[in-house]
Write a structure and sequence with these properties.
heterodimer, A: 81 residues, mainly alpha, extended, B: 206 residues, alpha+beta, 5-stranded mixed beta sheet, 4-stranded mixed beta sheet, 10 helices, globular
Amino acid sequence: MSQMWPIKNEKMRNFHERIWFIKYWANYVKRNSDKKWSDGQALLISSQIQSSRSFYKSLKKTEEGRRKIEKILESIKEQNK
Amino acid sequence: MEYNPYKREIILKGKVLNELDKFVIDFVNILEKFVGYVIVSGYVSILLGRSRASEDVDFLIQDMTFSKFEMMFKELASQRFECLNTNQIKEAYEMLDEHAIRFSRETPIPNIEFKKITSKIQEDAFNNKLSVKFNGKSLFISPLELQIAYKLSLMSKGSFEEISSDKDFEDAKHLYEVFNEKLNKEKLLEYIKLFKVENRFELLKK
C-alpha cells in the first residue's frame, strides 16, 4: 500500500505540470501571431499524420499487414455502433 | 486570433495549415455543396491552437435526402474519400439513422466522423455555430461555451488519477484560457448546469 503513494504523488505532479503547460501554451497563442503559433503546431500535427500514413503504407505491402489493417477498420466500425 | 462574439466569427491571420487542416478543408469543400454542418469536439480546440493531433474530426450534419447524399458520396469518392463502414451508398445512408459513419482518405487515420443531428443540444450547436475564417476559407464550429461544457462532460468519471491526463479536460481548459475574457459567462453556466459538470468546472477555473 505504501508503494501506491509515490505513484499517486507522481500523477498529481504530472497533472499540475500538464495544466501549467496548457496555460503556458494558451498564453503563447494569445500573445503571438497566428502565423507563429500555427507554425509550431503544424510541425507537431503534420509529423504525426505523416508517420501514420507511412505506417499504413508499409503495412499494405504484406499479407499480414493487410490483415492488420482489416482488423483496425473493423474496430473503427465497431466504435460507431 | 480575433474573436467577435457579436458577429459569431473568429479570424485567424496567416495560419500555417497542418495536414489535419488540409484534410478537413478538402472534405468540407465537397460537403458544404450538399448539406449544412457544424464541427464539434477535439478539432475545435486544435483549430483554435491546441497543441495536439487527433485521429478523427467530428461533424454534425443536417438531415439530407438520399439523392443529395448519393451525389455527395460520389463526389467524395471521386476525391479519394472512402466510407470506412461500407462502400454501398444506400447502406451508408441508412446507417446514419442508427450511428455515425466515417470517411477517410488513403489511410484510416485521420478520419471524419459523420453524424446526423438528432438532439436538442446538437441543434443548439448547429444554430449557434461560429465561423472560423482563415486562408480564404470558413469552417463552422460549435459555440465555445457549449464546447467547453461538452468537453467537461466527456471526461472520465473516475478518480483524480483517472482524469489527470484527460485530453477532454485539457481541450476545455485550452478554450477557457484562450477565450476567457470574451466568453458569455451566463451561457457557459447554463451549459455547465445542463451537462451537470459544476464540480469539473470548478477544477477548470483554477
